[in-house]
Design a protein that fits this description.
Blueprint: E1 15-19, H1 37-51, E2 55-59, H2 76-86, E3 90-92, H3 99-107, E4 113-115, H4 123-126, H5 130-137, E5 142-145, E6 167-169, H6 171-185, E7 191-195, H7 204-211, E8 216-219, H8 224-230, H9 245-258, E9 261-263, E10 267-271, E11 280-284, E12 293-297, H10 299-309, E13 314-318, H11 331-342, E14 346-350, H12 352-360, E15 369-370, H13 374-381, H14 387-390
Parallel strand pairs: 1-2, 1-5, 2-4, 3-4, 5-6, 7-8, 7-13, 8-9, 13-14, 14-15
Antiparallel strand pairs: 10-11, 10-12
This protein binds adenosine-5'-diphosphate (ADP) and magnesium ion.
Adenosine-5'-diphosphate (ADP) is lined by residues 196-198, 202, 221-222, 294-295, 318-320, 322-323, 325, 351-354, 374.
Length: 397
């Protein structure tokens, strides 16, 4: 079901409570924001509301203060950066509820922006406490959720407030659910899923859900080791998830029966120890030395994977192909990224590490959509209903 967005409702001059995801990384030493992409991602919604003459009340969590005030987790650096990006003053408050907040809201003029203090200074936020949610809701006439990255959590500001206010999606939220949703419900075929990352146990529900929808399922990363082991290959010192051997065998059988082409590496890059500055070599999967670690997919695998991807019209990718944090082992991830960048297809990337890798390669803008929500995108692709999405009003037909 499509969700109503800020474009579907009357907003002129309204007080709008907007849940954003301003949980940005800070440099430990300088305390400066080291990556402002989450702030930038919220700008279209904020700007739209400003242009409609709304009184914009922003709220977000920041870090894990565990329900008490932590000075280092105040949102002040975010207010500063947001103000620079909007080229407008951004007022802020020392708390997210209370008298000071109410006074600041009442002083807000049409088109002005206020950023409330870190929601998670109150334990009631993560507890989805109804009184806390009602108090937040009491600040505004309308609730907008643009925090896709937190939509898999049922907290007061992501779910609870919608019990007390009309609730609609922001533009970032809309884009996320449109891209991820279309891939699951109405993809253009041929459709491939590329999955990787550290462990198969993190991706069981994703693999299960996507298997019925794709034509190709490409498996790399550390998780390919459990698949290779289930087929009788030695995988050296890399970890096998023994309790998942049955699952991956079943998955391969299901793929077979459904006519889905499940592809595993045919060669891999192995290293003497799990580190970045150690000798490494390429070996066929039948020849992985007992003493070494699987660190990346090999060149024949890259060729085989990219050849299939060239045929595709939709590709969903979650999880890097190798230990891309070390330059020696990022070739597989980079080659897949470069192939996707060249495709005339819808390319959708989810997962925190995957997004980080694509950003390092400078290819983010060459993908149809790189999700801003690691955990949220994974849960969405698993077919779960995200609480922060479920509470939004459905679009009328
Ligand atoms: P995402 O955040 O994109 O969903 P994951 O969290 O599942 O991805 O996995 C990312 C991690 O997987 C990275 O830290 C990467 O180093 C690791 N990884 C990739 N390939 C391997 C491998 N062959 N062995 C061990 N870890 C790996
Ligand atoms: Mg991750």
């Amino acid at each position: 079901m499509k969700k109503k967005t800020i474009r579907d409702i009357e907003l002129k001059d309204r007080k709008v409570l907007v849940r954003v995801d301003f949980n940005v990384p800070l440099d430990i030493e300088t305390h400066e924001i080291s990556d402002d992409s989450r702030i930038k991602a919220a700008i279209p919604t904020i700007q739209y509301l400003i242009d409609k003459g709304c009184r914009v009340i922003l709220c977000s969590h920041f870090g894990r203060p565990k329900g008490k005030v932590v000075e280092d987790m105040r949102l002040a650096p975010v207010a500063k950066r947001l103000s620079e990006l909007l080229k407008l003053p951004v007022a802020s408050t020392k708390d997210c509820i209370g008298i000071e907040v109410e006074q600041s809201v009442s002083k807000l003029k049409s088109g002005a922006v206020l950023l409330l203090e870190n929601l998670r200074f109150h334990p009631e936020e993560e507890q989805n406490d109804p009184d806390f949610a009602r108090t937040l809701a009491g600040l505004a006439d309308v609730y907008v959720n643009d925090a896709f990255g937190t939509a898999h959590r049922a907290h007061a500001s992501t779910a609870g407030v919608a019990n007390y206010l009309p609730a609609v999606a922001g533009l970032l939220m809309e884009k996320e659910i449109d891209f991820l949703g279309k891939a699951l419900t109405d993809p253009i075929h041929p459709f491939a899923a590329v999955t990787g990352g550290a462990k198969v146990s993190d991706k069981l529900a994703l693999l299960e859900n996507i298997l019925n929808k794709v034509d190709y399922l490409l498996i790399g990363g550390g998780m390919c080791c459990t698949f290779l082991r289930s087929q009788g290959y030695g995988i050296g010192q890399s970890s096998v998830e023994e309790d998942k051997l049955h699952f991956v065998k079943e998955l391969a059988d299901k793929a077979d029966r459904a006519g889905v082409q499940l592809m595993l590496p045919v060669d891999v890059v192995v290293a003497d120890s799990f580190a970045g500055d150690v000798p490494f070599k390429v070996v066929n999967i039948g020849e992985i030395p007992d003493s070494s670690y699987v660190m990346d997919i090999g060149p024949y695998t890259i060729k085989a994977f990219t050849d299939e991807l060239k045929k595709c019209k939709t590709v969903v990718w979650n999880g890097p192909m190798g230990v891309f944090e070390y330059p020696a082992f990022r070739d597989g991830t980079k080659a897949i990224a470069q192939q996707l960048a060249q495709l005339d297809a819808t390319t959708i990337l989810g997962g925190g590490s995957t997004a980080e890798a694509i950003d390092e390669f400078g290819l983010t803008d060459r993908m149809s959509h790189v999700s801003t929500g690691g955990g949220a995108s994974l849960e969405f692709l698993e077919g779960k209903t995200l609480p922060g999405v479920a509470v939004l009003q459905d679009k009328e037909h």
